[in-house]
Amino acid sequence: MDKILVAHSPDADDIFMYYAIKFGWVTLQDTEFDNIALDIETLNQATLRGEYDICAISFALYPFVKKDFALLKTAVSFGEGYGPKIVKLKDTKLKKNFKVALSGKYTTNALLFKIKYPDARITYMNFLEIEQAVLDGVVDAGVLIHESILTYDDRLEVEAELWDIWQELAGKELPLPLGGMCLRRSIPLNKAIEYENTLIKAVKVANDNKLLLSKMLLERDLIRVDHDTLQTYLDLYANDNSIELSPLQYQALDKLYSLGFEHGFYDEIVKSQNYLIPSEYKELRNS
pTM for the whole thing? Predict the structure, then answer.
């Protein structure tokens, strides 16, 4: 029996996309899946250290780990007219060098923020602490991610939407790449293909059974939000576009990596489709 550990974030879309496996709706013969939930920047740092075989990551991290990890085609989250929000206290004006809280050095929102606001003073903290830090005046502004974009305090107002910043930087309307998954390259290729196909199936089954799976997650207190907020959030980040990367999503990833290279964050331009698991190998091997 092969054992494989899948590391994902505790936010609603990651849990939703994985739990068809956890509940036994999707299985792989002779394979036992287990999971661990950690915040996304912890997962980014763990992937840099090579700790997990399959791990959720911020898309902005991927160029730093591309030699050791393949980019998976499934369990992806993109913004389509929405995304993380830069918030501040109402009726305040930010200076050029305002102090801001971000959820992690390697997050996609951090990359785009640094390009847009090169003079801002950045501090990093757990994403669950950012809203309170702004309310308490510890920072002038903060970038809210995950479910926080739907539930923030009414004493706050939006300074800017990461979606708008992304559109400005990208130069055309492309979905905003936020998070995906990667798989360690040392895993034998035939196994890697099976693991990816199982995850693709799990995301599809979850999406096809959204209301039932949501009910089960809420009953087990696995989700931080209520039913209505969960459905809104899943419609944003765990939907038909999460099952398998599309040509438009590849374009968006390539634009993200091109921007990162142009602004000195990456040492080379990365073309996302060059770093996928070659799933055609299995067909060729059996032909």
Answer: 0.93
